[in-house]
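Field notebook, page 248. I keep forgetting to write these up properly, so this time I am using the form the group agreed on. The chain and the ligand, uracil, are recorded exactly as supplied. Prediction of the bound pose follows.
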Amino acid sequence: MKIPRERLQKVLARAGVAARRTCEELIRAGRVQVDGKVATVGMKVDPARAAIYGDGKRITFPKRHLSLLLYKPKGYVSTVNDPQGRPKVTDLVPFPGVRLFPVGRLDFHTSGLILLTNDGELAHLLTHPKYGIWKTYQALVKGRPAPAALEQLKRGVLLPEGKTAPARVRLLKQFGNQALLEISLREGKKRQVRKMCEFIGHPVMELKRTKLAFLALKGLRPGQYRLLTTEEVLRLKKLALSGAPRQD
Ligand code: URA
């Protein structure tokens, strides 16, 4: 997927050069250059990468934020660097020149929804426990947890890093010697779901994150991604700041 490009006059107007009509006149008068060539009205540019000059002076732009939702396949690390050289989630999103970083972590063997962004504020609001954004997982566990064990998960269990906060837990189905649980958390301790399930004696065999607040994996297959819309980003930020108890 290409980086969205915009019409030059719109980009110039947003950068505060002048009103859009006036920008069009400046372009028509040959006073604007893009990447060393005289610009034309309506040409499309990527303001993050194009060298744009007006009357010989470089026009700079506030950094444009890019956020996307990736369906992480198993077998990828969600860090920007991996000393072991394993495949990285950033390898799946070709946006050269844009430094995207993962919002929070999913283990190497976990699949599912992860956001990538270059918007530090968004990442902070979605990952800091004080904003309490819900993250939902489907965990295929060994054995059939008794209702009391599920209650324990809901109330919180004592891990070496402290007691886990109240969670939402549902038994989705049981088959053979396995059960599929849906677990929603407002915090994100390292390997939290795996440790919680281990604690109640039902180790995780497969783990997938299915939701983050109101975002889901709908329409995506492992390895695929889509850009978040401006509205979605605003809604996520508002939600984090509102501390809303339900977010889906
Ligand atoms: N909890 C885990 O145990 N692993 C993940 O990847 C995410 C949440």
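OBSERVATIONS:
- Residues 106-107, 110, 191-194, 207 surround uracil (CB under 6 Å).
- The CA atoms of residues 161 and 189 lie 8 Å apart.
FOLLOW-UP: compare against the apo run.
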